[in-house]
């Protein structure tokens, strides 16, 4: 309740801000259909799922491998997070859907950081002349 009063106190007369949980719920509903329930769409998804599958089968997580060869084109953080999601969600989701949830996490973090940046902006509340 305090968060609602705090956000309402920053609003200009006649403006209302939606609570953060409402915005988070709408973003979740927006992101969810693109993450689960479909076959791989993008060209990159095939090799990402192969790398995640290799990490799960072998346990070699330091250097990702694609078709048995070291894959150093991109940093391994995304593959490791995707592997974690795949392991966590494996009872309910197939490999590709679980791995794709890492993209949802990174998208949500990006939106959260952008929202916090806008909240902390020194220019907030000012208008252009």
Features:
mainly alpha, 61% helix, two-stranded antiparallel ribbon
Q: How much β-strand is present in the residues? A: under 5%
Shape: globular
- Strands of the widest sheet, in order across it, are 1-2
Low-confidence stretches: none
What do the pLDDT scores average to?
Answer: 78
> How far apart are the first and last residues' alpha carbons, in Å?
35 Å
* Alpha-carbon Rg, integer: 20 Å
Main sheet record:
2 strands, antiparallel
Helicity range? 55-70%
Structural class: mainly alpha
Short structural summary:
The protein has five helices and two strands, in the order αααββαα. It has 129 residues and is mainly alpha-helical.
Task: Please tell me about this protein's structure.
The chain is mainly alpha-helical and 129 residues long. The chain has a domain at 30-119. 61% of the residues lie in helices and 3% in strands. It is built from five helices and two strands. It has helices at 2-10, 20-35, 43-58, 77-89, 95-119; strands spanning 65-66, 69-70. It has a two-stranded antiparallel ribbon with strand order 1-2. A hairpin with a 2-residue loop joins strand 1 (65-66) and strand 2. Helix 2 (20-35) packs antiparallel against helix 5. The chain is globular. The two termini are 35 Å apart.
């Amino acid at each position: 309740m305090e968060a609602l009063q705090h956000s309402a106190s920053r609003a200009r007369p006649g403006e209302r801000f939606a609570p953060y949980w409402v915005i988070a719920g709408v973003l979740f509903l927006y992101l969810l259909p693109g993450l689960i329930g479909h076959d791989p769409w993008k060209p990159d998804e095939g090799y990402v799922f192969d790398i995640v599958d290799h990490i799960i089968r072998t346990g070699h997580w330091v250097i990702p491998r694609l078709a048995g060869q070291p894959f150093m084109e991109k940093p391994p953080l995304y593959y490791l997070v995707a592997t974690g999601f795949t392991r966590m969600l494996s009872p309910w989701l197939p490999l590709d859907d679980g791995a794709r949830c890492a993209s949802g996490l990174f998208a949500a973090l990006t939106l959260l950081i952008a929202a916090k940046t806008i909240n902390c902006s020194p220019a907030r509340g000012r208008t252009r002349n």
